[in-house]
TrEMBL record:
Keywords: Membrane, Transmembrane, Transmembrane helix. The keyword Metal-binding does not apply. It comes from the Bacteria. The lineage of its organism: Bacteria, Bacillati, Actinomycetota, Actinomycetes, Pseudonocardiales. The chain crosses the membrane at residues 67-87, 99-119, 147-171, 183-202, 240-267, 274-293, 299-318, 330-351. This is Glycosyltransferase RgtA/B/C/D-like domain-containing protein. The keyword Membrane applies.
Length: 455
């Protein structure tokens, strides 16, 4: 409940500006409708898992509007600390107190909070990735099912490949019999089918997962990108769709504490901790070789793992003091508890203070949500009132779909006009056939489908 409140608070602050960014409009309005129409609308619309998430959410949310996706994602991402608490308790063998600290820290770090409310794909892959690795490391027989969850992580956002790579490695390592191998093969086959299934679902296009990284690996500037990762983590997370003035790990001091904690966790609980640490390494590795658009949102796994591994490090600290026999039993326990609280406060206080400042900047408009797509807002109006006017114009016949598309954001706006009407029980001002006809006149169609499909 606390995590949902925190995330929703950020979402409400940003929504107070009345601006939906271009990528949010694409993913939560156009791409969701496109999925139901068996239509891939652009070379960037490759993450069918997140499209399905927002499509389902849009149908069940009680208050559908232009900004519905932000609270929906905020609530979904509130499951992350719950999963991390379970990981710390059952996989890293932490006490309830230290597990709680790790889960909270991982969830309030800017690297997690800043993506937890934005209506895009990134962040959702971490949610599914944690669930996948939690299952893959289970002592129960269902552990090969982690491969299916890992595939869902990949389908939600390409950065899920970091989680999937480690899940595959763990599952291969755990094979001890022909039966195990058969289950791993089955899980891998189902997972691959899930990732590739949009190719059968869409009537056009044919690109999955890659999105902005469709050019493949780029090894030429890996050193520069590695330095960039460090900068994003400890100095300034500022990058594409990063609505915060903070670094992903808040500061160099907090980053240093988390780094020491990760080392302690690896040294003291290597067998339990190494898969989680490997995810962070895989995320960094994927970042430095990828040709996609760089930015903090592609290494969310580092913040998640950094906060998580604080839990076993603190747990080791508590156990070290608790084993002392020279003092009355209550003394080392009290000292250990004080140290845990002090360590938690050292991290959580600056992190939450920075988060509150960021939220205030969003709510006041000091940190603007960009209108990074060609949608001219009416003088004195908002995106919502402008869409209402376009809707009325289409219904009255004073505007055509071609005029609206050419003048106000193309297929994104036309799709939004359909979904905003359909989800609220009204007849849309244009048909899906008119939307698809307009698509065939756009550059998106020419890039994705080419002639003779496009005009």
């Amino acid at each position: 409940m606390a995590a949902a409140t925190w995330n929703l608070w950020f979402a409400a602050g940003a929504t107070a500006q009345g601006v939906l960014a271009g990528e949010e409009m694409s993913i939560t309005q156009r791409d969701t409708l496109a999925l139901s129409l068996h239509w891939q609308p652009s070379i960037w619309s490759t993450n069918a898992g997140s499209q399905l998430f927002y499509l389902v959410a849009g149908h069940i949310t009680p208050h559908y509007d232009l900004f519905y996706a932000r609270p929906v994602k905020a609530i979904a991402m509130a499951l992350l600390p719950v999963l991390l608490y379970l990981v710390a308790r059952r996989r890293l063998l932490c006490s309830p107190a230290t597990a709680l600290v790790g889960a909270v820290v991982a969830s309030v770090l800017p690297g997690t909070t800043t993506v937890a409310w934005v209506g895009t794909e990134n962040g959702l892959e971490a949610l599914w990735g944690v669930a996948a690795l939690f299952v893959a490391t289970s002592p129960r027989r269902l552990w090969p099912a982690g491969l299916v969850l890992a595939a869902i992580a990949v389908s939600n956002y390409t950065a899920g490949l970091a989680w999937a790579a480690v899940v595959v490695l763990v599952c291969l390592w755990r094979i001890r019999s022909v039966w195990d191998a058969s289950l791993v093969l089955l899980g891998g086959a189902v997972g691959a089918a899930l990732v590739l299934s949009p190719l059968l679902w869409w009537d056009n296009g044919g690109i999955v997962v890659t999105g902005g990284g469709r050019a493949g690996a780029d090894l030429g500037d890996w050193q520069v990108r590695l330095v960039e990762v460090g900068h994003l983590l400890v100095d300034d997370g500022g990058s594409y769709y990063w609505f915060s003035s903070q670094a992903m790990l808040t500061s160099q001091i907090v980053a240093g504490v988390l780094a020491v904690a990760a080392v302690v966790a690896l040294l003291r609980r290597f067998c339990a901790a190494w898969p989680w640490f490997a995810v962070a390494l895989a995320a960094v590795g994927l970042y430095v070789v990828s040709s996609g658009v760089p930015g903090s949102r592609r290494i969310v796994a580092v913040a998640v793992v950094g906060g998580l591994l604080l839990a076993p490090a603190l747990d080791e600290l508590v156990r070290a003091f608790s084993r002392s026999r020279r003092l009355p039993r209550w003394v080392p326990v009290a000292v250990a508890s004080i140290l845990v609280v002090a360590a938690a406060v050292t991290i959580i206080v600056p992190v939450t203070q920075g988060g509150m400042q960021t939220r205030a900047e969003l709510a006041s408009g000091q940190r603007r949500i960009p209108t990074d797509w060609p949608f001219p807002v009416d003088r004195g109006g908002t995106q919502t009132t402008t869409l209402d006017r376009l809707d009325a114009g289409l219904r009255a016949g004073t505007l055509t779909p071609e005029q609206v598309g050419d003048g106000w954001g193309g297929t994104r706006t036309l799709a939004a006009l359909i979904t905003l009407s359909d989800r609220t029980g009204r007849i849309p001002p244009l048909t899906s056939d008119e939307l698809l006809a307009y698509y065939r006149t756009t550059g998106d169609c020419r890039l994705l489908d080419g002639p003779p499909t496009c005009r």
